[in-house]
Amino acid sequence: MIERVCEVVGEQIQRNERTFVFTKNDEISFQVAQAIGYEADVFQKENTYAYHLFADEKCKVLVVSEELGIGINLPNANWIRAHHGSKSVTIGNITDA
Fold first, then answer.
1. Is 35 helix (H, G, I), strand (E, B) or coil?
2. Whole-prediction pTM
């Protein structure tokens, strides 16, 4: 399975695309990141530095375990609240958009 993930991610890296890889736990995250190589970093609760590298486009692949959950960070814009009532995003909100 890790080999297939590396293959797909490798194709994205060649196209100069950045991506997230979600795994089951931190142990698997480290295995995946090691297999991908220097283009990948692991995001952990206690060390968010990898996220900043990804956000600053210094890291192409951010490996994240499901232990952290999945969230979508929206800009702090009043029009979002005016139109939707809050900045909280659900699958329903996304499919409506």
1. helix
2. 0.66
